[in-house]
Amino acid sequence: MQKIFQTSFWTVALSVSCATVHAQQSSSAVLSEVCPLPAPLFKTPIQPIENLQPGAIGVRADRADIDSQSQVASFFGNVEVQFDQQQLRTQQAQIDQLSGNINASGATLFTDGYVQVSSENFRLNSGENRAFLSGAEYQLTETGAHGKADILSLSPQQVLLEGSTFTTCPSDSPVWQMSAQEISLNEDEEWGEAWHAKFELFGLPVLYLPYINFPVTDARKSGFLFPTFGSSQKNGFEVEVPYYFNIAPNMDATIAPRYMAERGTQIQAEFRTLSETGNGQYNVAYLEQDKSTDDNAARYLWRIEQNQRWGEHWRGYINGTFISDDDYLNDLGSDFAGRADAQLYRHAQLDYLNENWQVTMRAEDFELLGSYRSPYRTMPQIKSYYAANAGFDVDFALFAEMSHFQNQDLSQDTATRMHIEPQLSYHLEQPGYDWLAELSYAYTYYNQDADFENNRSENPSRSLPTFRWRGRVNLERNIDIKQRNYTHTLQPQIQYLYTPYRDQSGIGIYDSTLMQDDYQGLFRARRFSGLDRIADANQVTIGASSSLFDQQAKEIARVSFGQIYYFENSQTQLFDTSTETSENRSDLALETRFRINDNMFFNSSIQYNLELNSTRKSQTTLEYRLNEFNLVQLSHRTVTNLLENDVEQVGMLGVVELSPRWQLASNWYYDLQNSRTNDAFIALQYSDCCWAMRISGYRRINRNLEINTGVPDLGAPEFDNGISVQFIIKGLGSDNRSLLDMLEQSLFGYRHPFHLSN
């Protein structure tokens, strides 16, 4: 039986039926195995009433009484009310067709698509367009956030809770919840506000806030992030409380006061911006008075990074980190530089690129941490590179540069360098082989102050031709190993390099240093970076690389080895004779890579002196990596004749997921030469759907660069110990760094086994 009533306000469609309503599973009922949403309050959705017009109220009930005089309709038994996107389920309801009000007594269920509410009664005030429910339990449909409220009122865009609680924990006994005198949830802006709020953890109030705003979804929202607590010998008790500013969709900022009992309060700030043509990040940290220093000195760090492009051809980039003193990183740490870093590199550049030209204008600066020779700034440097085909498969290139250098400590110590270098090259490439022939002529002129070094000339110049020939053979065959097909490649190569000797002792050292002599470095055309020293060479380099590929073209193994044979020893040096070549051949460079399986890798790089039968440098790593939550890396490295002290170190780094809720991270680096631990770190994290807690501790050598003139005191080192505790409350903002990221704060961060030389 169906009855339809009409008034001048709306149409009430009434259906009285005793039919069984069958449950339907909605997509929101599909639960996550790890963090399930709470069970929806509406176990079975209300079946839509057909042909219900917008603005009309549709009702199903077992029984209905209609008072034609008062225009009040009363419904009893399994009452289901629908109006627009809102649904009400109760046992008894009254609808006043004149005022538009709805009243329901007894247990009720209500939803408007945004929130589901179970309450003791329900009242809709049509004039205010607001519904009131008392004794309510509510649940946000999309996020599963839920709680209780003495009185809950609803408008089309707002949920207002009085005497209420809020939590994102799915359980009925949440680990954390916020109870407040009043909570307001805004559907459009995806955030909430609370007044006179108490934060409760494990049922105990731990924090009172007169006002707080918080996100109710994953959307960004201004507000406090949860603090970090720690303690160390150098800083004492620490607490850091970040506040996040959501300025615009493409712009945000964070301010994080950091209190250190032994030093004082440090203010840290970060600003980020993003646009269609670039992005930038700016950071500053300032400690006005460091109580742990004798003079209560101010300590600071500031950093800028900006990447920008203008049109098709122009690019710009600036990146720099600046600190108040050499020991800042060792004492206070930073996300932008490691505690073991020996220098800070800063530069800004503007690039123009087209099909043939690349022009770069750059300013760069090195800050060496410790008592070392004062470096030079490049202010500015203009580089130009032109490349084109000259015909007959011959390529022509022209490199030009003008650089102005200034000593960081002595501003009068300056130099200007002009360099031009044309080059002709012929490259022939075939499937079975390829070879390259290059002929270049470099002319360099200096205008430098000779007063600062006795052996420095005022206007030296240098002309150097260079000839280079390199050939490679590419051999390939198919082989079977344990009934599996593989592709085996062999690539022997040879290079001849000739550059005559020129006396360059009258030229200052501004941007040159000795480069790494690994396998790839053996085939470079120059031994030194920069242009202040171009080493003489009359040598041949011989090497070979062999690889094994599976049927999916994955490299399973690689072995590479090479060596330079000198027809004449190079006489060109930097500051001392250590960069001269005094033997008839270089160290043997050997590199091996093995993919043991899809998750395990072995990598080794060795430079071995055949004359002395000793290893100059070696780096070896064995890594098992399932994902960023499960990896273990074992490493060993050796460096001899480094500041008259050999280095031999073994290390272990690991991140392991003990269970879905427990993770462990640790590293340990041991100095075999001095029989001591240089760096150790361990962190344990518990995480579930509601909260997480990290407990970490470290012990590392205290570098004290300013006290130890740049080198740690090897005889009686000083160590720094510390612990840290961090709570992460999910649903109110959190620290999203993984445990692997936390290991980067130690002296020796994680390195991918394929990039040990980074």
UniProtKB/TrEMBL annotation:
Domain LptD C-terminal: 299-668
Pfam families: LptD (PF04453), LptD_N (PF03968)
Domain Organic solvent tolerance-like N-terminal: 59-190
Gene Ontology BP, a term: Gram-negative-bacterium-type cell outer membrane assembly
The protein's assembly and partners: Component of the lipopolysaccharide transport and assembly complex. Interacts with LptE and LptA.
CC annotations in GO: cell outer membrane; transporter complex
Organism of this sequence: Pseudidiomarina marina
Signal sequence interval, chain numbering: 1-23
Subcellular location: Cell outer membrane
Family: Belongs to the LptD family.
Protein name: LPS-assembly protein LptD
UniProt keywords, alphabetically: Cell outer membrane, Membrane, Signal
Function: Together with LptE, is involved in the assembly of lipopolysaccharide (LPS) at the surface of the outer membrane.
Classification via InterPro entries: LipoPS_assembly_LptD (IPR020889), LptD (IPR050218), LptD_C (IPR007543), OstA-like_N (IPR005653)
